[in-house]
Amino acid sequence: MSPVLLDGEHLTLDDVERVARHGEAVALDPTARPKVEAARRVIESALADGRPIYGVSTGFGPLSDVFVGAADREALQRNLLRSHAIGIGDPIGEAETRATVLLRANVLAKGYSGVRPEIVDLLCGLLNRRVHPIIPERGSVGASGDLAPLAHLALVLIGEGEARHRSERLSGAEALGRTGLAPVILKAKEGLALINGTCGMTGIGALAVNRAERLVRLADVAGAMALEALRGSQIPFDERLQAVRPHPGQAICARNLRSLLQDSEVMVSHKDCGKIQDSYTLRCIPQVHGGVREVLAFAQATVTRELNAATDNPLIFPESGDILSGGNFHGHPVALALDALAMALAGLCGFSERRIERLVNPQLSELPAFLVKSSGLHSGFMVAQIAAASLVSEAKLLASPASVDSIPTSGSKEDFVSMGWLAAVKLAQIVDRLAAILALEFLCAAQGLDFLRPLKPGRGVLSAYELLRRHVTHLEEDRVLRHDLDRILPLLEDGSLLAAVEGAAGPLA
Prior knowledge:
Blueprint: E1 4-6, H1 13-22, E2 26-28, H2 33-48, H3 73-84, E3 88-91, H4 94-109, H5 117-128, E4 132-133, E5 136-138, H6 147-157, E6 162-165, E7 168-171, H7 172-178, H8 190-195, H9 199-229, H10 239-243, H11 248-260, H12 265-269, H13 280-283, H14 285-307, E8 315-317, E9 322-324, H15 332-360, H16 382-398, H17 420-450, H18 459-471, H19 481-493, H20 496-505
Parallel strand pairs: 1-2
Antiparallel strand pairs: 3-5, 4-6, 6-7, 8-9
Helix pairs in contact: 1-4, 1-9, 3-6, 4-5, 4-9, 9-11, 9-14, 9-15, 9-17, 9-18, 11-14, 14-15, 15-16, 15-17, 16-17, 17-19, 18-20
């Protein structure tokens, strides 16, 4: 398979997923190499002319007025990495690390940073030979980008720091040596170019956004399955209702639900039951899930733009020879988008949990108490709802926006920071909780459908139900439900549940 080619212009969310989670190879696009070389020549020419350039021939942050002579410029770049590598806590995951390395390589490949092409080649080498720098989870305020995390990444390029290779934690020098890679000596500007920017928050955010997109579609499936088990009405999903409140996400969700519920015998069985209206968590699925979709679309658009953005500082423009200092490294646009999605997904967590409560609570359904025939002797799915409630509370706490906070840093030179890294990490944690809550809803809804047999649900719901039942059997008496959860969570994450549903009901938007 051909590698993903990096030119700073065309990287997609799917590319990030393929490289970060599935290990696809990467390379500097041959068309980008001349652009990278041209920007490097501008840096070398400016240095030859004795021009003061921030972070190249000067100190950093509040020390930007301190001139650094030619003899010390390599040491300046090396010292920058060492001084900034003060991340705290456990390392981020392998996929998140790979996404961060990938985005750093792509930004430099864009040709505005002034590094030599071999820096990009070495970053690609780390990915292709599975040398994964140890990047601590905490320590970035997302101001001049993710300085501390990216410094840990960059140290490995010079044979310092730590990296993981084949599940073994090694020194940076040993990890490079074992894989046939050679460390580099950083030239002027290159250390700064490696740590300035939003690659960490954007990489973590991109993976979280991709997972969220899959889970939001699966939320429609879980909602449809719960609706059938609770004998709810499909009238609220009528196309005419959506047309007179024309939010795109609402219309998409309602269309998904109509597809999922096609040919439902359950719906026909209670068509004339006399019930006037369902609860909000059944009746308002298009409005709530649709609203989440709109926020997700905003986050996807923002992160996709950032994947191919020049977030270094200063930036080099070879056409004019200008070297411009600005603020493209600031993470606020990304932080806002990720925070918005975090709040939307936290709400979705709560919406799903309320359906779980309706499924297990006999006062709210016509199903056996806690979805088990011999309730009392058996507790059934009682604690599934409790576990979901706990996860919802965690999601609510995590949804508090990071981007509204700011602590001035670097002698108040960086006097308003984005906290974008924290926004990304929190979003990923909320996505984890959403996946578990939806899995719990699927378990409860499938159990509820068992009590309606031999009636069949809609074709999309039926396909989901049948796949779940191939992995988890009906609960007759109490067993360790954690094992059931562990069996079906991979079906949500690897795409097999969604694929089964779409094979029966058609593509879900």
